[in-house]
Specification:
Layout: E1 2-4, H1 25-40, H2 46-59, H3 72-75, H4 79-85, H5 90-93, H6 101-151, E2 160-162, H7 166-179, E3 183-186, E4 189-192, H8 193-207
Antiparallel strand pairs: 1-2, 3-4
Helix pairs in contact: 1-6, 2-6, 4-6, 6-7, 7-8
GO cellular component, one term: membrane
GO molecular function: serine-type endopeptidase activity
Pfam families: Rhomboid (PF01694)
């Protein structure tokens, strides 16, 4: 998700560390339900589960790598820091950083639903390559769009910070829509597939605005 001022203008800045507060009991119940769903899967998609594990480990501070650790403002996708400071690690690490329990849960639940289908369709190796490509492409579009807007007098996006797996999930959802171009379900609601990716993006923006 996006937020102004997390990283400051052209700098790493601060921002709170993820997982620093107590976990929401409701999220714990939802997470337990998600684990139950995983256990009930007839086939456990290894790449999908590895990605879920990595995102969760980063959020709770288990992974200690410079590009994945520290305050959100130091690792977020901030176009100005990438373009003018050469902080290219943000283009990858920012996707694995989440700002809250709800942000993490929503994205991991979405990743599981998409990953099970796409990994079965493309094989684990193909899905790994697809996910890596979508991560790079989605973040490149974000940075490129920010640069184009700044060149035309609007630098708001240039100095914004984005974190989380939502960009990758949006791309994966779009691919799923092409593969099954009729109807999708979001939080139990049926919606036309051509609008599903946008509806999910709006929903996560409303649920986790910062």
């Amino acid at each position: 998700m996006f937020g102004r001022g997390m990283g400051g203008r052209y700098g790493a800045g601060g921002g709170r560390r993820r997982g620093a507060r107590g976990t929401n009991p409701f999220i714990l119940l939802m997470a337990a339900r998600l684990v139950q769903q995983i256990m009930q899967l007839p086939w456990k998609p290894p790449v999908t589960l590895a990605l879920m594990g990595l995102n969760t480990a980063v959020y709770f501070g288990v992974v200690n790598m410079p590009m994945l650790s520290g305050p959100a403002g130091a690792v977020c996708l901030q176009p100005a820091s990438i373009l003018y400071n050469g902080e290219w690690s943000r283009a990858i690490g920012s996707a694995f950083v989440h700002g809250s329990d709800m942000h993490l849960y929503f994205n991991m639940a979405s990743l599981l639903w998409k990953g099970v289908q796409l990994e079965a369709a493309f094989t684990s190796g193909g899905f790994a390559l697809l996910t890596a490509a979508m991560l790079l492409v989605s973040n490149a579009i974000y940075v490129g769009g920010a640069w184009l807007l700044a060149a035309n007098g609007y630098d708001g996006l240039l100095v914004s910070c984005a974190i989380g797996f939502s960009g990758v999930l949006f791309a994966l959802k779009t691919i799923l829509n092409v593969m099954a171009p009729h109807e999708s379900y979001i939080l139990g609601f049926r919606i036309q597939s051509r609008w599903a990716a946008w509806a999910e993006l709006v929903l996560i923006s409303l649920m986790v605005p910062n």
